[in-house]
Amino acid sequence: MWDFLFQGFAVAVSPLNIALVMGGALLGTLFGALPGIGPINGIAILMPLAYTLGLPPESALILLAGIYCGSEYGGRMSSILLNVPGDAGAVMTTLDGYPLAQKGLAGPALGMSAIASFVGSTLAIIGLTLFAPLLAMVAVKFGPAEFFALMIFAFASMSAMMGKDPLKTLIGAILGIIIATVGVDSGTGVLRFTFDMPELYDGIDFVVLIIGMFAISEILLMLEHSFDKSSDKGMAPIGRVMVSMKEVMSCKWSMLRSGVIGFVIGVLPGTGASVASAVAYTTEKRIVDKEDTFGTGDMRGLAAPEAANNAAAAGSFVPMLTLGIPGSGTTAILLGALMLYNIQPGPMMFSEQPVIVGGLIASLYLGNLVLLALNLPLAGVFARVLTVPKWILVPCIAVLAFVGVFQLHSDLHAIYLMLIIGVFGYLLRKFGFSLAPIVLGFVLGGLMEQNLRRALAISGGESGILWESALSIGLWIAAIIVMVAPWLLGRFKSKAVAAK
Amino acid sequence: MSGAADRVLSILLLGLAAFIAVQASQLDVPFSYDPVGPKAFPMLLSGILALLSVILFFRPGQGGKWPRGALLLRLLGVLVLLGLYAWFFTLAGYLITTAITVAVLAWLFNSGPAKAVISGVLLSIGSYLLFTFALGITLPWGAWLTSLA
Amino acid sequence: MSTFSFASLRRPLLAVALAGAASVSYAQGGKPECLAPAKPGGGYDLTCRLASNGLEQASLLETPMLVNYMPGGIGAVAFNHVNGVRKGDPDLIVAASTGAALNLALGKFGRQYDASNVRWVGALGVDYGAVVVAADAPWQNLDELMKELQSNPTSVVIGAGGTVGSQDWMKAALMAKSGGVDPRSLRYVSFEGGGESLAALLGGHIQVFTGDLAELKPQLDSGTIRVLAALSDERMDGAYAEIPTAKEQGYDVQWPIWRGYYMGPEVSDADYQAWVERLQELDGKPEFAEMREARGLFPMSKFGSDFDTYVKDQVEEFRGLAKEVGLVK
Fold it and tell me: Are C130 and C210 in contact (CB under 8 A)?
């Protein structure tokens, strides 16, 4: 069974292909680093280029794999440096990444995120190599009832993030779920909260939401800080730039666990890097965050979502390659790219086109290695972004936000919506809300409602379907455990604190 | 002291909850294959939100410092600027709107006039080249340039 | 800083702008553009790429065609945009499909719009609906499935990638109707797109999937599914030759998913005709036939007024259907 991988590596290590994977990785990093211009756009834009250049299918795939891996790495940069997530999977990265940068540890944080990304991807690619066909069969067993249970579990895990202000965390999550209800109802086709505006029919675009929420509100907050020097927490000067061995070792279990979680969630069609990183982060917070340092710049809080979202990105290749079913927007476009070359992914692909599969997997391995090699030494250079004065940095963020949204929608309404959401985000932040629960509510809430209703449509209204399978029962039990156990512990802890 | 801000917020959220409930109850559903339908979920959310805002009213937390005076004016200035940027984005084209927006933003962030103008011009041209040539993203020229071309 | 005057800027900017790859989203550069009214990666993206890659390969355009995206409202945003901002743009074609005709019929593009608000250029390919079950399903043909539905419509869970009123739902509803079963009495589940529905079929969560032929090819090759009926007028060739049509099994349901293009309402006859001829010429090339097949599409070959009539008739037909099943009053 290893033949295909060897053949794949044999194809991938030709000079042209190595150059392509490096070029792709660099370009991909650039795409990923710009907010709103993620892997989907990178591949959509460069796919025709690969075709026009007349590259053979393996080489084109290798270029695309490079871009794909690169943009997954690049997405974290703006999360860590600017508190603006580059894509859906990078939202959780802001939670500890940005505080680390504020402490002057931007360099080590970037290095750590590169290592965690590498570990997560590598784990997932190994999983993909070894178990892909098998996993695909398990993944399809995950039906609406199981997805609903998974969402319950994910919401239950969020209770770990309650932090300082549980009430506002809850309100934030509810607001996020409410935002997710805008648009055509996927069950009945009824328009909800669209106010007769066709721009809202498809709901609020995730990219518009996070760019508005994070980037625009960040601009307003930065203005406040620059105006009122006394309130300027500012950035500590950049200290050392390399991540230390000690830091890496302290995260090793977090990375491994999160990599596995990310991969498993990524394999399920319909859930992606955002769900994976959220579950990984909250799980790690429960397991290792004894001193309650997550959210204040804890390396493990950075490593967990980074390992998970990269693992999920690679995991979403499983249903695409083995079933021909794209598990995410990015794999949907990769699927299109494959079809351009007359390659039809599906159950027969592993046996019928081993060179293509092997080449793709080999180039994912190579792409990751190249990116690790690029990112570690360059972390210090990227961290210099923070030394750029505000009067240059802020206009750059504004321009990127505009271009990111405009190239996605070719439409000004989306930009206005982004600005409105930005004001909304700014106000919420001033009220002491954290943005992550809102974004999580948005991602998970829509999935939760849809899958609940799908499950009930299947059963004809019988609610028994929700806890029928072993998988869903397991998830329900896990949800109850994560809800109840820390709540009891938390009460105990707060009493102890109050006693002091 | 800042509990007042949270109280205002709680009233606003209560209003939002009521608005959602009214909107959801007015949905016209021809038919639904699932027993839950499109109304139940928003109604439930509205209920939870209402409950949480009542709790917030009685247990307000510590709010931050709210902008006032010159700062508030500057914040509004930035918003108006970004709104105008959007408004003229396709009309006047990327290069001009970006140059002006960047210059004004830089100036609002205390760059001084010379640096503001230079950064506006350089950034708009530089980013235009980067986006169109390196990243293949199409950006509007604006009507004036087209009439020349 | 008066040295950075407007006049001194203009020349280098023009040089940059005219240099080549640069172009405009609101198509003023005279560059041909295909607008995909969706996010990258979907069917509309494919439709645009079919035109842009095809035209480029066949050297039918002087400058390469751009593909831009305008998601929103299942095409409503782009339709409104073309009717508002770019009514007469001679360089812009917009990707459309049977879904656009359906949405026009349902009034989802805005009540004030119908098919005559744009100029329909032509279609370069077509796919057909299919009724699919898992390989181990009890039904060997459409008739057996319909008999079961007739005796107890809720005993079979049907799933597909769209909500009530979408194309995928229409396939299921029309199938039911052809056997005298009320579409409202079915047990129907909507997923996000064909991929998720196919996964649900393979996982045994739904029993019948009303999908499209082309997306089924890999599963068909591996024998994990059985296609009970193709919703086409006649049987397809090649890998699909074994699949009977619904019509030949006594249920008159057809669902072609054409992939075509429209232009703004005020585009001149000359410009419109130029595009019609361009696409027609492309359609006749053997290399293009290969490309179309690679994307899983069958030949369609309807252009100009022929296509215009076809779409308008289709919208009327859909309007009637929607009334029958109670979607519009």
Answer: yes
Please report the beta strands in chain B, taking only residues with DSSP state E, as ranges in sequence order: none
Nearest partner of A389 among C9, B82, B110, B49, judged by Cα: B110
Residues of chain C with pLDDT under 50: 1-28
Q: What are phi and psi of A115, to 5 degrees?
A: -65, -45
- pLDDT at position C17 is 33
Copy the structure tokens of residue B126: 């530089």
**Burial classification of residue C238, based on how many CB atoms lie within 10 Å of its CB (0-12 exposed, 13-18 middle, 19 or more buried):** exposed
CB atoms within 10 A of CB A454: 28
8 Å CB contact between A105 and A374: no
Domains and CATH numbers, chain C: 29-126+258-324 (3.40.190.150), 128-256 (3.40.190.10)
- A46 close to B136: Cβ distance less than 8 angstroms: yes
Contacts of residue C228, Cβ cutoff 8 Å, sequence gap at least 6: C131, C132, C133, C139, C141, C142, C145
How is residue A177 written in tokens?
A: 């779920």
Measured CA angle at A61 (ends A55, A66), to 5 deg: 110
The CA distance from A371 to A21, in Å, is 10
Domain that holds residue A494: 3-499
Dihedral of CA A56/A59/A61/A67: which sign?
Answer: negative
How far apart are the C-alpha atoms of C114 and C105, rounded to whole Å?
Answer: 7
Q: A300 falls in which pLDDT band (50, 70, 90)?
A: very high
- What is the DSSP annotation of C69-133? E--SGGGHHHHHHHHHT-TT-TTEEEEEEHHHHHHHHTTTT-TT--GGGSEEEEEEEEEEEEEEE
Q: Shortest Cα distance from B148 to chain A (angstroms)?
A: 23
Containing B40, the helix (H) or strand (E) segment is helix B37-58
User: Closest Cα partner for C108 from B32, A201, B39, B37?
Assistant: A201
Assigned token pair, A105: 């540890």
Number of domains in chain A: 1
Which of A55 and B56 is assigned the larger pLDDT? B56
pTM metric for this prediction:
0.87
Q: For Cα atoms A258, A80, A420, give the angle at the middle one, nearest 5 degrees.
A: 105
Backbone angle region of B68, left / alpha / beta, with phi > 0 → left and psi within -120 to 50 → alpha: beta
- Strands C119-134 and C256-263: what pairing? antiparallel
Q: Kindly indicate whether the ipTM for this predicted assembly is greater than 0.85, answering yes or no.
A: yes
Contact A379, A111 (CB under 8 A): yes
Angle at C126 between CA A200 and CA A54, to 5 degrees: 90
Q: Which of C26, C186, C187 sits opposite B140 (nearest CB)?
A: C26
Separation in Å, CA of B143 to nearest CA in chain A:
16
Backbone angles phi, psi at A477, to 5 degrees: -60, -45
**Taking a C-beta distance cutoff of 8 angstroms, is the pair A99, A295 a contact?**
yes
* In chain B, residues 124-143 whose CB comes closer than 8 Å to chain C: 125, 128-129, 132-133, 136, 138-141, 143
Distance, in Å, from the CA atom of C200 to the CA atom of C10, rounded to the nearest integer, reads: 58
Q: Is C130 left (phi over 0), alpha (psi -120 to 50) or beta?
A: beta
The residues facing C34 across adjacent strands are: C67, C93
pLDDT value, residue A207:
84
Question: Bridge partners of C129?
Answer: C212
Residue of B118, B132, B143 lying closest to C28 (CB–CB): B143
Q: Find, among B39, A146, A460, A191, the residue nearest to C189 by Cα.
A: A460
**Both tokens of residue C44?**
């509309």
Q: Give residue-wise pLDDT tens across range A188-206.
A: 888 899 888 888 888 898 8
From C223, which residue of chain A is nearest by alpha-carbon distance? A347
Residue whose entry in the numeric block shows the structure tokens 């309402």: C265
